[in-house]
Amino acid sequence: METESEPYVRLATLRQLHTVMADMNTARSLADTLQTVADGVVTGLGFELACVNLVRPDGDLVVAALAGNSAAEALITGRVGSRASWDRRLNMGEAWGDLRFIPHTEGWVLDEDDVPQWYTDGPAPRFEDEWHPSDRLFAPMRTPGVSGGSCGELIGVLSVDRPRNGRRPGAWGREALQMYAFQAAIAISNARLRANMQRALVRLEREQQALRASEESFRQAFEYAPSGMAIAEMGGDQHGRILRTNDALCRLLGRPASAMRRYSFSDLVHPEDIGTLLRTSAEGGRAELRLGRRDGTYVWVHLRNSVVADAADGPRFLLTHVEDIEERKRRELQLAHRASHDALTGLPNSAELRSRLSSRLCQRPQSLPPGAVASLDAAYGHGQYPELPGGAQSAYEGNGHPAYDNNGHGFDFQSVSEAYDAFDHHVHTIAPEGETDDGTKGLAVLFCDLDGFKSINDRFGHNAGDAVLIEVARRLTHAVRDGDTVARLGGDEFVVLADGLGRADAQDLAVRLRNAIIPPIRVDGRAVRVGASFGIGWAHCGMTADEVLKSADERMYIEKRSRPKQHRRAG
């Protein structure tokens, strides 16, 4: 093409130009495309040197490919020029359509900037259109615009040098270079798109492989976990329904996996633990409760919840880890029982007795001075409330309307809580007044001391004494009602707590218990007898547990001294 005069162009030249453009679109990678673009300028457009400067993500331009001079290629390939310097170049010199030509008379100011460039030697031009070694010609490569023109985003710049005919390109040469740059921009954009797609496909494949590996890892961890695992639905009408269980959970509950899918955890939990289950949060919730086995028994388990999603915006599921803690719970219950029960008789010990007694008592005295609400208390059967210091009653009688709950207790007013700590939701314990049965029912405390026990210990040894205590504990337990407490205070002293008794009822109970104790007890082949002295005390709010026990103990000693010594034992 360089030897032809314009406008006449040989058909072979057009074929050659078509070939190099086709080669640009058949390159297999972005690097091959860039090198093909540079080579095409040299082979198809008649320039001895061509360089492709590619715009980087940060805006600067890097020398990505060079053709026509191996020394220049080694010198500047990979070097970077700033975007500001390139913008300066593309706004200097003469505009040849989309091309930019900077003659040597202007280009000398660019010799010291940061754009990578090469220098060629040669004589000064002898005529006007002859190419000077310091001339510069740039062909910007832009993405196609809306109307198909090359007015889009700058993706690179073609730098060309030394036309083979030694002359500046004419109209045909300029048009060919401009068209070539336009096609090169399309080819580079397509190559970038293919490269991005290939990277995306590789990344997607890796992510899918990682997902498959993760799913397989989760499946194996789920299926072969030594403790129970379950996946349940979350939200919707089927919230909580079990979708999948592992073998460990099926073995723990004695239920096949197909049967487990018919249940939710609320169907399997012990009725007393349903509240615990409902209070357990879905994300990170933990609970200890009992789950039902197929045989009707229950096993203690520790539940730990977490929420998992099928995909980024997919449905969420509840992953529940179920750990068998039956053995630990059994040990805990055994330890708690040992701490609160007598090792010999199995009865509640002194600490447990005081705990149960204290739970029924508060600091509110039984008898208080009548206040302004006494008439309402009498009408509704409520106990008296204390007048506040200084005669103030506003905490009870806002505008003449008392504020009580169903048990006659003041609601959470500050002055009330300061006077008596635990009014809310507490049923006050009261005691019969006087020595006659006035019909009042209260909490009777029967203090029992065995008569004649010491002589059995002394004569037959401690083993015999232990056997007597065990039998007395058994007889007392069988003689009281369900819900009454029989405790061993220590030594040969026992205490019975019986609620809802009047004075006559308590006396009858003491006689019944004494009659249960006095029959002979067989110990090592011999029959021994012990008697029992009972003191009846009454617990009411305003007393401490120790004060109640002391009162019953004193009454027991009064009753013991009131009987002749020979009558204290049955025989």
From TrEMBL:
Biological source species: Streptomyces lutosisoli
UniProt keyword terms in alphabetical order: Coiled coil, Nucleotidyltransferase, Transferase
Name of the featured protein: Diguanylate cyclase CdgB
InterPro entries cross-referenced by the UniProt entry: Biofilm_reg_signaling, GAF, GAF-like_dom_sf, GGDEF_dom, Nucleotide_cyclase, PAC, PAS, PAS-assoc_C
Pfam families given in the database record: GGDEF, PAS
Record-listed E.C. numbers: 2.7.7.65
Every GGDEF domain range: 441-571
Parts forming coiled coils: 190-217
GO MF annotation, one: diguanylate cyclase activity
